[in-house]
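check this one:
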Amino acid sequence: MEKIETQGLFSEDDIELAWERVCASVGSDVKDYFGINVFSSNISLHLKEMFDELDENQYIPSKPFKYFEPKKCGTQRTKTVLNIKDAIVYQAIADKIGYLLYDKLSNNNDYVFGSVLNENVQKGVDVLDDDEPDFYFFEYYVSLYNRFVEGIENTIDSGEVQYKLETDITGFFDCIPHSVLLIKLFECGIDKKLLDVLSVCLNTWSGTRDSITLHVGIPQGPSASFLLANILLDKLDEIIISKGLNYFRFMDDIRIYSHNRSDLLKILVEIDRHLKGLSLSLNASKTDIKVVSTENNVDDFILDGSGIPFEEGEIDWEDESEIDIEKIASDELVIQDETQFRDVKGTSHSYGKNTKIALYLLKNIESDLLNLYRENKYIEEGESLPTEIIREFLTLSQRWRSLVPSLKDDVGYIPNKDLIDVWFFGVEHIYWKANSMVWNFGLYDSLESHHHRYERTLIELNRFEWVKYQLLSVFYKFYPNDLSKHAEAIDVLSTEKSPLVRLGYYSVLVESITENSELFERYSKVLKSERNEYVKTSILNSIHYNHAQVSIDNLKEWFLK
């Protein structure tokens, strides 16, 4: 590959800020944790080496790790995990673009609710000098969603709208033409030299893991891509806003409300024409104009992977007089993809003297879950659960998961085994949220008596590599002491084609080996022959994390040579 001209594009502060934003970013499923840990071992040295590499025109983007994640409709989206150096460069580019275009983009913040720039972006690298710097690139995801819901609720409750236009863009991230995006950025005043680097990077990172798609598609996962997507749709926002309609956009999910159906038909034509000019197209199957119902508008508030989490912090458990049991038990909260939340791991909560209240809540949640399961468990194969049932199921599941860990610590609570079938039902019928059910499985000490159901579910959902990967993360719960099953997992690795599923099987073995385990030699041999570099380094990081006494250098000696 021809050398990329990066000299003079980035300062050392630019690289440091990009590093901080990559580490702070939400979306834990698209982070190169091995690379992050390597950099963290001597951050000053690694960031300086990276700056020198860029300043000497030695930087070359590498092919990323990609996997397929299912959507509710049964199709799949391609997710991209950039290695740490590429992630830093991409974020550094985004930082410069966001800094220059912050004022322009913020003009539409009353209408755009997905990936809105954090106000600190306008500080540029000066944010590094803050006493308590906020490195989040975007506003908090949940706050944005709350504003989205509140705006729609107020619009509908006003009684001034009768019709809703709902639509989205077909394969949005995968179909964005690089030329259209780069021209748009150039017209916005972005330096051409920076755009030349971005062009080479996007071509390296585009497509699926099977093949690249030159000049088309941006990687879905990194924060920078969401910024670029918003910039591309900024002109569309201005067109719709100028019509004076009630407009809401959450990335490529578009909602427009009006008292007049003909207004929506007209704006639909304009949206379609504008997108065609960008070489994009509307998703015909998801484009519809409906009468607004003030009685049942649940569909207006459901987005793929979006919602409001159950936040224990809002309850003062120390002041019993302030606790409204019925309100807590009846509040309707929507589950969101928790990979999008800020990292709150390690913030364990204790209910103290109010353990009885927490147990009361848990009992009600479990009763509701079991009733919901009994009412829907005979749903016919291929039939979809109604949206309101999915919403309630995920909400109750999240509440359960929020309460159980602390109660296990406080009173030795043992998770209700009657719910195990409920979680399997969730995996099978809400498979695009399988990770939520798997987190619930992880709260049980052992699931050995349900291994037959587990095997059946793995087979039934084999078409989705992401679901299989999620289920493999709790393999050891179903086979805690069965070394033959772990040995079978090693055998599967030699024939498994999906790198993501192989990563899942390796994770199984991480839970079962020690330095002196009889599995160690076989495990070492198969990992040495692993052909995907990201999979290999991710597992080394996982071993290091689970067995902190084993250094990264020793792991490299064992598995990489």
In short: Residues 91 and 222 are 8 Å apart (CA to CA). Strands lie at 65-70, 76-81, 163-167, 246-250, 253-258, 288-291.
